[in-house]
Design a protein that fits this description.
single chain, about 220 residues, alpha+beta, Tetrahydropterin Synthase, Chain A, 2 domains, 4-stranded antiparallel β-sheet, 3 helices, 4 strands, rod-shaped
Length: about 220
């Protein structure tokens, strides 16, 4: 028989829970839409009286298969990831074979609804900011008195210690407050922006102090 191309699409969005036990910070109820094409190469002539019947059944099974795939998804495993498309396509083809239809499916459109996309993007952004903040704190947690601002090697692309400007404030008019509206002065070692005589790095700009200099060679701030 000649291959039959059967197009199908979700009339209404399919809901799912996006939760990965390895990343418990994200736990969302989302929805997606999909559209695809199943190329039928063979079908059971006993079950179907002709191409038209096979086409109708293919479209029905494809949509039901996607819903069933979501329903039977392993609990605690992320659904919305780079492998989702391939998993859904394989699941559809397996279900079609159970109905006597041999086909190869391609989901050419697979996307979150606009509302779900906003929720998902916001959650990813928040998680990224949290991880960056924790990374910075971990890198400077061993700063001790008399050695304020000394960089810690490894892991991050941060080359200098925390500066006076608050990196968590999105606006250009920095008022010294973090995302939770709390002052971030504590983020600077010993809670001070003023250099002391024992500092090896400038608290104003992070530049290394040259041979006990009384002033920073970068910004001119006085030590002590």
């Amino acid at each position: 028989m000649t291959d039959i191309k059967v197009k199908f699409g979700t009339g209404t969005p399919i809901g799912f829970r996006e939760y990965d036990e390895n990343c418990p910070q994200i736990d969302l109820d989302l929805e997606f839409r999909a559209a695809g094409i199943s190329v039928v190469s063979a079908y059971d002539g006993v079950l179907y009286g002709g191409d038209e019947e096979a086409v109708i059944k293919t479209g029905e099974v494809a949509l039901l298969a996607m819903k069933d795939c979501v329903r039977t998804w392993s609990e605690g495993k992320s659904f919305w990831n780079s492998a989702t498309k391939a998993v859904l396509e394989e699941y559809i083809d397996e279900r079609l074979s159970e109905y006597g239809i041999t086909a190869e499916t391609d989901l050419f459109s697979l996307a979150l609804t606009s509302e779900s996309r906003e929720l998902y993007d916001a959650a990813i952004k928040h998680l990224t900011e949290q991880e960056w903040f924790i990374d910075v704190i971990d890198r400077y947690k061993n700063v001790i008195a008399g050695n304020e601002g000394q960089p810690v090697t490894g892991g991050s692309n941060l080359e200098r210690p925390p500066m006076g400007r608050n990196p968590f404030t999105p606006s250009s008019n920095d008022e010294g407050f973090g995302m939770d509206k709390n002052p971030v002065a504590w983020f600077i070692p010993n809670g001070s922006m003023i250099n002391t005589s024992g500092d090896k790095y400038c608290r104003q700009c992070g530049t290394k102090r040259e041979n006990g200099a009384k002033f920073c060679t970068e910004c001119g701030a006085k030590f002590g």
